[in-house]
Amino acid sequence: MSAMTTSRTAPGSGSSARGTVFGETMLGTLRLDDEPRTRRVRLDLTVSADRIIRPLGTTEARATGRVRITGWADDPSAAGELEISPLARRRIRYRVTFTADGRRLTLDGWKSVTLRRPLTSMTVLPYTLYEDGARIGTGTLRFPLGTQLLPFLAGFRFPRREEPATFLTPRWRGEPGRADGFDRHLDEAERILRVATQPLDVLGSNGRIALTGARRLGWQAAPLRRNAPGCQGSCQCVVGCPTGAKQSVQLSVLPDACSAGARIVTEARVERIIVDTDRPGGPRAAGVRVRREEDGGFEILAPLVVVAAGALQSPPLLRRSGLGRHPRLGRNLSVHPATSVAGRFAAPVTAWEGVLQSVGVEQHHAEGILIEATATPPGMGSFILPGLGAELRHELDSADRLATLGAMIADRPSGRVLGRHRTLPHYQLHPRDAGRLMRAVRAMGRLLFAAGAEEVLTGVPRAPRVHSLTELEAVLARTRARELHLSAYHPTGTVAAGANPQHFPTDPLGRLRGVHGVLITDASVLPSCPQVNPQLTIMAASLAITEAHLGVSR
Questions:
Q1: What is the signed CA dihedral for 63, 64, 70, 73, rounded to 10 degrees?
Q2: What is the pLDDT of residues 159-175, one digit of tens each?
Q3: 114: how many CB neighbours lie within 10 A of its CB?
Q4: Distance of alpha carbon 459 from alpha carbon 380, whole angstroms
Q5: Is residue 39 part of a domain?
Q6: What is the rounded distance in angstroms from the CA atom of residue 147 to the CA atom of residue 408?
Q7: Lowest mean pLDDT segment, chosen from 10-19, 156-165, 335-344
Q8: Which of 293, 423, 457, 484 is the most exposed place for a label (fewest CB within 10 A)?
Q9: 538: closest CA among 203, 144, 192, 297?
Q10: Buried-state track 407-446, b at ≥16 Cβ within 10 A, e below 16
Q11: Torsion angle of the four alpha carbons 474, 479, 483, 489, in this order, in degrees rounded to the nearest 10
């Protein structure tokens, strides 16, 4: 989850919408392929969609509930997805995963909707039962019209909620959504960085494995959009692109700044913002004091100071400058907690040949979980191979057969940045996000096994290897998030912008409260955690703040 990829998930319209919630009970039978007898089945589901169900379109929904199979299973924690498309595709598809006798199974089937008998056809669900992608049985479930129709209809609810794409996107005025015209600024940032979808021919085996697993599971996945036109798949993003394809700032931004008259001062540290406290109308920025080894330092005088030291460094800088009095300064820290797993395959993968971050898996994005196919040369990434000494050497000798996935969580702001001269981050993982990390490990393991992995390296020290989904489920059932190997990326939110002066150190136009002439234009200004790498969001926010300051409108 490095800061190299410029993937973008567009935030939503900024207004809340109605969702749909309903319950459904179906009864039926199951015949396992290795059994002569038929078992009775009951499925009780609660279905939740983030929009009003559209009969003429397709609606994706989440399902939770209970699966009971006579003499074999009673799982109250079943979960899955529905694709509700009664007219557009003439089907309602169900995929529900549950545990039976310690085995992780998936019920997959759909109701085929006919125009001649629309109501009756929507009551019959033929299905197939799978374990680790292999069929183990078939059956049929039926919705009992005579006893369940009225409770079914009466149970429909339409709660107000945010659009899925707005979950955890910046909240500029204390409400879901974003500043007016933000799409335009995102488009401009993409133009500057030359963002485009990564071609398939340079993805590499690691990305292709992720696409294969997602396709077999029916999950949404696609090559990431990146700021690397002409990428040759050298997988060296973390140390610098050897071909110059990566549109880093020295290629995409600084040349334009220099053409406009900017002067770049290197190897210099800003000690403090100079503030004139005697100006009529209140304190005003007058420049910055800079320390540099070669000449001892100097002052740069200017009526406007743009702070862009990052979410970890901006709060200490403001405190050193006497501008840290707001009670929320340094709070509201999000860090995109992340973890990773690897799958071992029979054939060589050589994951470090291809694009470093190649494919995004969007299936769980509405839950704030983004999975990416990401790989680095051994020793340069966050994934830790198991073992020490000879065991570790053996792992390294066969590292070319590993495919790696990473997942990051759009976390609740659960940290703060302390300190004036030294940065002291403090972060406590929220229980909700701990659960998301565990779900992310489960999903990554499931994807790798679906793609054909012989074993999955879990990142859990006491159970580093599993060879089936059932074994993975057993390991995760007795594992807490604190036992995972975690990393953190993209800190945001510590000088957040918002309309309420009591809650936000910065106003909606990026102006630091309590002083004139200080703009905040880095990740610290984002009031909540984006679901994706925030590079485009930060650049777009900076453009919006700059336009507002200059009084420019288009």
A1: 120
A2: 765 443 343 344 444 34
A3: 11
A4: 16
A5: yes
A6: 45
A7: 10-19
A8: 293
A9: 192
A10: bbbbbbbbbbbebeeebebebebbeebbebbbbbbbbbbb
A11: 90
Do residues 505 and 494 make contact, with C-beta atoms less than 8 angstroms apart? no
Say yes or no: 138 and 192 in one domain.
Answer: no
386 and 346 fall within a common domain: yes
For residue 154, give the amino acid letter.
Answer: A
Give the pLDDT band (50/70/90) at residue 104: confident
CA-nearest of 140, 121, 189, 183 to 29 is 140
What's the domain count of the chain? Answer: 2
Backbone φ/ψ region at 353: left (φ over 0), alpha (ψ -120 to 50), beta: beta
Q: End-to-end distance of the chain based on CA atoms, in angstroms?
A: 35
- Looking at the fold, whether 92 and 195 belong to one and the same domain comes out as no
DSSP state of 399: G
Q: DSSP letter at 225?
A: E
490 annotated active-site: yes
If asked whether residues 349 and 220 sit together in one domain, one would say yes
Q: Could you tell me which of 399, 406, 411, 409 has the C-alpha nearest to residue 358?
A: 406
What average pLDDT does this structure show over 47-73?
87
Question: Are 510 and 372 contained in the same domain?
Answer: yes
Compute the distance between CA of residue 142 and CA of residue 111 in angstroms, rounded to an integer.
10
- Asked whether the beta carbons of 205 and 405 are under 8 A apart, the reply is no
Please pick, among 364, 490, 516, 549, the residue that the annotation labels catalytic: 490
Q: pLDDT: is 124 or 10 the higher one?
A: 124
Degrees to nearest 5, angle at CA 140 with 139 and 143: 155
Sheet arrangement for strand 284-291? 269-276, 284-291, 298-301
Q: Which of 105, 134, 161 is the last residue of a domain?
A: 161
- Residue 5 reports pLDDT greater than 80: no
Question: What is the domain extent for residue 169?
Answer: 1-16+163-231+309-552
CA distances from residue 513 to 119, 137, 240, 333, 339 in whole angstroms, order as listed? 60, 64, 38, 19, 37
Spatial neighbors of 242 by CB under 8 A, at least 6 apart, are 234, 236
Number of C-alpha atoms within 13 angstroms, CB side, residue 452? 14
| 489 located within any domain | yes
Is 58 in the same domain as 187?
no
The C-alpha atoms of residue 442 and residue 339 are separated, in whole angstroms, by 11
Mean pLDDT taken over the chain: 86
At residue 160, the pLDDT reads 61
- Using only the alpha carbons of the chain, give its radius of gyration: 26
Q: Can you tell me the distance from the alpha carbon of 443 to that of 259, in angstroms, rounded to the nearest whole number?
A: 48
Q: Is residue 62 part of a domain?
A: yes
Q: Which long-range contacts (CB under 8 A, 24 or more apart) does 66-69 make?
A: 66/42, 67/41, 67/42, 67/43, 67/96, 67/98, 67/100, 67/107, 68/41, 68/42, 68/43, 69/30, 69/39, 69/40, 69/41, 69/100
